[in-house]
Design brief:
cell outer membrane, Serine Threonine Protein Phosphatase 5, Tetratricopeptide repeat, 576 residues, 12 strands, SusD_RagB_dom, signal, mainly alpha, globular, two-stranded antiparallel sheet
């Protein structure tokens, strides 16, 4: 079949080449000519806006990211929707080569790379004839573009690279193609996969070049806050060095960010709502994907300034009949075993034997115990930052407060079926914002950096300081002063946590990364680089669609079949 596709495409191209110019002339007289565009700094800024915006294209953080990939692979979520077989298979760690969600994410990430490559070429042409001031402005745009290309490659390598680099091994495995210019012919699109190490080296090279340009640069203007700063680049570099286990460089960069960036953890009352369009660009934030409510285009449209992630993870609430009502698509909910991992063990909101998910059947003593646990902080408070509790928490629907329900379409009445809280609209339903949620994605923040720094210190001989940075994150979660010893501090790096499972029960560093960053899309990559996928699968066991099917090759996703058939040099990942 592949040979037929290749031959057909080749014949088509030959036929086009042999036609007379008048027959194949497809010039658009209204198109912008590359001879004079980009011709100004404003033109470059326009192209830069497109490179940033691709981060929230429909198949990235505009819709697919989280609920249709990483949330499923690491079991942040379970599915109420059972109508899409390949979606269920993603949640079973059984990804398929023809999965449309994976295909879309692959395409949009490469579209981001292509836009960056196009812009970098335009900058070079523009700068060669620009005056000094315009050349300086173009150089700042170049720094941001290099950062963005590294960002797209970060996801391509993390999701489709055959392996992470672990204990010096895996660097020779297959990564993704390294492409630095836009293709002008079919042969230029036939690029083989580089190695994993080559991909990470490329990411680091782009970030180092961006660092050189952007060091000391901050953006204070209202319309520029979303742009990457010098400290953001250094923080991203620190994260990449941790991901590649280059502990010496990781320590250099992360310690610099911790000590000199001026960033600080925000108080708990700010933290708990900063994923819901409140407290954006605060003192903890290093990189945010800037989103806005867009009543012109839905979040699933590439032209929208918002995201429809909230539509997929939307809470369900108690309807007029006391049963369950969807606030949007409401397709996924937090996997039940995540509730226990936060230390919640107060029983279930419905008494044993309850037949119908109705508010009239709720155990009143359960509500009393839950309210007390929240007030007394006997359960990790981040549970309620991340999730909405049925029949205890509420949401706003058309201006009216409604209780959260047992999640829609979950027939298993005895299952914990909560709703997500991060990245949903707290002021109303997703439909009220045209499915174009304006909650910024806090992609890299200081709590993440603290925990990466702590991990780095455990590998460079300073467990005492590592423990302190783990405790800083924990103290904020419980409302204590960040820099002062507290009653909730871990005593050692093997102290008991809130989690009941073997993976996290006696590993505060891993637990804090899981709990602090829950629902933010980082845990899957931690699972991959720590190689704990089999242990995680053993803990979660199954999703509603069936048993989790873990294989050692599941750390890497399958190259989409469309790419295999269109790029003759592309090789598939093992196991698919």
């Amino acid at each position: 079949m592949k040979i037929l596709v290749k031959l057909s495409l080749f014949v088509l191209l030959l036929g086009m080449a042999s036609c007379k110019e008048s027959f194949v002339n497809v010039d658009n007289p209204g198109a912008i000519s590359t001879a004079n565009y980009p011709g100004t700094v404003a033109d470059l800024e326009q192209l830069l806006a497109g490179a940033y915006a691709t981060q929230h294209a429909p198949n990235l953080f505009g819709h697919n990211m989280l609920a249709k990939n990483t949330y499923l692979w690491d079991h942040t979520t379970d599915l109420s929707w059972q109508g899409t077989t390949t979606w269920i298979q993603l949640a079973q760690n059984n990804s398929q080569v023809n999965d449309s969600f994976l295909q879309g994410t692959w395409q949009d990430l490469w579209r981001g790379v292509q836009r960056c490559n196009t812009l970098l070429a335009g900058i070079e042409t523009f700068s060669a004839k620009a005056n000094t001031a315009d050349a300086a402005s173009a150089n700042l745009i170049k720094g941001q573009t290099l950062y963005l290309r590294a960002w797209y490659y970060f996801y391509l390598t993390s999701q489709w690279g055959e392996s992470f680099i672990v204990d010096g091994q895996g660097g020779d495995k297959m990564g993704v193609p390294i492409i630095t210019k836009t293709s002008s012919s079919l042969p230029e699109t036939q690029v083989a996969r580089a190695t994993v190490k080559q991909c990470w080296d490329f990411i680091i090279s782009d970030l180092k070049a961006a660092e050189t340009i952007l060091t000391g640069k901050t953006w204070t203007g209202t319309t520029d806050k979303y742009k990457v700063s010098g400290w953001a680049v250094k923080a991203f570099l620190g994260k990449v060095y941790v991901y590649t286990q280059d502990w010496a460089n990781a320590k250099t960069y992360l310690s610099d960010v911790v000590a000199n960036s001026g960033k600080s953890l925000v108080p708990f009352d700010t933290y708990k709502n900063m994923f819901n369009a409140q407290n954006e660009f605060n003192s903890e934030s290093l990189i945010e994907l800037n989103l806005n409510i867009d009543m012109t285009y839905r979040g699933t449209d590439d032209r929208s300034m918002g995201s429809s992630i909230g539509m997929v993870i939307a809470p369900t609430y108690v309807g007029s009949n006391g049963g369950q009502a969807a606030s949007a698509w409401s397709n996924v909910f937090p996997h039940a075993k995540n509730i226990a991992r936060f230390g919640f063990n107060l029983g279930h909101y419905f008494p044993a034997g309850t037949a119908t998910a109705n508010i009239a059947n709720v155990d009143k003593s359960y509500i009393t115990k839950s309210v007390a646990a929240r007030a007394n902080k006997t359960v990790d408070p981040r549970l309620w930052v991340s999730c909405l509790q049925p029949y205890v928490d509420s949401m706003i629907v058309l201006g009216v407060k409604q209780p959260i329900s047992h999640y829609l379409d979950i027939s298993e009445i005895d299952m914990e079926a909560w709703s997500f809280r991060k990245y949903i609209n707290l002021a109303g339903t997703e439909g009220e914002v045209n499915m174009a949620n304006g909650d910024n994605i806090l992609w890299l923040r200081l709590a993440d950096i603290y925990l990466l720094y702590a991990e780095t210190l455990t590998h460079t001989g300073d467990n005492a300081t590592a423990l302190e940075y783990v405790n800083k994150v924990r103290r904020r979660a419980y409302g204590y002063a960040v820099n002062t010893a507290s009653a909730v501090d871990y005593k050692t790096l093997t102290d008991q946590t809130s989690a009941p499972d073997a993976v996290l029960k006696n590993d505060p560093l891993k637990y804090e990364r899981w709990a602090e960053l829950f629902g933010e899309g980082h845990w899957w990559f931690d699972v991959c680089r720590w190689k704990i996928g089999d242990k995680e699968a053993a803990y979660y066991q199954r999703v509603r669609g069936g048993a989790i099917q873990w294989d050692p090759t599941d750390y890497a996703q399958p190259i989409p079949i469309n790419e295999i058939t269109s790029n003759f040099s592309m090789k598939q990942n093992p196991g698919y």
